[in-house]
Amino acid sequence: xxxxxxxxxxxxxxxxxxxxxxxxxxxxxxxxxxxxxxxxxxxxxxxxxxxxxxxxxxxxxxxxxxxxxxxxxxxxxxxxxxxxxxxxxxxxxxxxxxxxxxxxxxxxxxxxxxxxxxxxxxxxxxxxxxxxxxxxxxxxxxxxxxxxxxxxxxxxxxxxxxxxxxxxxxxxxxxxxxxxxxxxxxxxxxxxxxxxxxxxxxxxxxxxxxxxxxxxxxxxxxxxxxxxxxxxxxxxxxxxxxxxxxxxxxxxxxxxxxxxxxxxxxxxxxxxxxxxxxxxxxxxxxxxxxxxxxxxx
Amino acid sequence: xxxxxxxxxxxxxxxxxxxxxxxxxxxxxxxxxxxxxxxxxxxxxxxxxxxxxxxxxxxxxxxxxxxxxxxxxxxxxxxxxxxxxxxxxxxxxxxxxxxxxxxxxxxxxxxxxxxxxxxxxxxxxxxxxxxxxxxxxxxxxxxxxxxxxxxxxxxxxxxxxxxxxxxxxxxxxxxxxxxxxxxxxxxxxxxxxxxxxxxxxxxxxxxxxxxxxxxxxxxxxxxxxxxxxxxxxxxxxxxxxxxxxxxxxxxxxxxxxxxxxxxxxxxxxxxxxxxxxxxxxxxxxxxxxxxxxxxxxxxxxxxxxx
Lengths: 297, 306
What we know:
The complex is a heterodimer of chains A (297) and B (306).
Chain A: H1 3-26, H2 31-35, H3 38-48, E1 63-66, H4 72-81, H5 122-136, E2 142-147, H6 154-165, E3 171-177, E4 180-181, E5 184-185, H7 186-190, H8 195-201, E6 205-210, H9 214-229, H10 232-235, E7 253-258, H11 281-290
Parallel strand pairs in A: 1-2, 2-3, 3-7, 6-7
Antiparallel strand pairs in A: 4-5
Helix pairs in contact in A: 1-3, 1-4, 1-11, 3-4, 3-9, 5-6
Chain B: H1 2-10, E1 14-18, H2 28-33, E2 38-40, H3 45-57, E3 61-67, H4 68-74, H5 76-84, E4 91-95, H6 98-102, H7 114-119, E5 125-127, H8 132-144, E6 149-152, E7 174-178, E8 183-187, H9 192-204, E9 209-213, E10 216-218, H10 222-232, E11 235-242, H11 247-258, E12 263-268, H12 278-284, H13 289-305
Helix pairs in contact in B: 1-8, 3-5, 9-13, 10-11
């Protein structure tokens, strides 16, 4: 394991630990959906995204939208560990007058670029942000992390058409493809299957990837980010992953990241009861014994 | 959309977002002049509203323009959660407002609930211009009002009410006539000419009328409205909207809290309309000049009794 992967793996574990503690103290929240994206967020927030936590509104920053807003405990943890918030503040999640609302609030929380929580809105918001970045003519990127359950929403596919139509190569989308939504599997609940084929049919360059392979995620997202900042000429022939043909220079890129809901805490893994549930004292202890790292201070 | 041209000329943050509504908005000239400031979403209003939110997050001033009902109903949640909640600078321009605006298209294109829907959402400003020049001015004014603004437009063939460049001051009532204090008439939009005619008839009968245009339904000029109510002691409201939760309701709420006096509402009486010619529709659905005159007389009678 490289030093870089080692560091990101440690950060992902820290985020998972923070999620268990945050939801335990808050007495409410969605742990399962947080755990499936902990590795992706660690890679983005501790390696890929260009950010300045001292200056959250810096115009030259990369934008990030957590479209699946109910997974905000892990998002807040990433922001805290990246220096936007004191980690102890995570305990205030979902309480009166907290900056950490039950779903992300762009006006309240430093580092949150877009309000989310009502599902299916990250891609259209990202479309607007990427169009604005193109008008500014700068190299900022817009990352959108969406669940697979929220792809039930028709609005997502409306935005998929527009982002491809406007050739927004500066927008990078990631699907947390854990296969489960609140009431069961995505296929059974909504009949949504063959995700990669669907995105290809909508004109997107689609990369299937293991959403828990930190080394591979880092490599692929780094390539996507480089390509996102490159000129059209430079983009010609730029690849995302070895063994795959390069995207057309005008195509937006989406990662279909295979993940496991609850990943990292064995009793949560694949168990949809943890979509929304608070760990008991014993469950918390067990999780702490598995997940290393620091407490919420 | 002449106002948008004026804005775009001075400010390149001003953008037009369409949901295949370019022709309906008569905005082809804008696109020819400012192609970089135009985004075509296609027939997908939720997406248009959420994309406008994204643009506004980055400092743009998007004007999302299409049919009033497709903005306020199809994209209602996007407006509420992703535009109004973060108080973003998105301007919404809705055509075919009211039953006269939708006219021959029928109920699917007649939007008489739009103001009521948006009035319940915090941070919204709601402007109801009466004619093309006021619409132009409302559009220009909207750009300098912080946060989301809804501009309720008609069919674009509405009768001219005001001379060009008659001052339009958002947030304030506009007293058009003060012929006495027997009754106050409050109204806006396409019903304004009818209110003017009704006030002439009432005056000819010796009834003193104060005629007030309320183009800003939200935030309502509560002080201005209260002052008129105190002076007149009775009022009629008139609007091309459902009588529920439009201007009439707003005036009645202000009256109930500040100056309870008899008030009658003229508007669509909580039913679905249908196809027809604009003026004929307004007559048929009880928004005629005669309806206004009768309502005024009946309300004055209530005032005398009490």
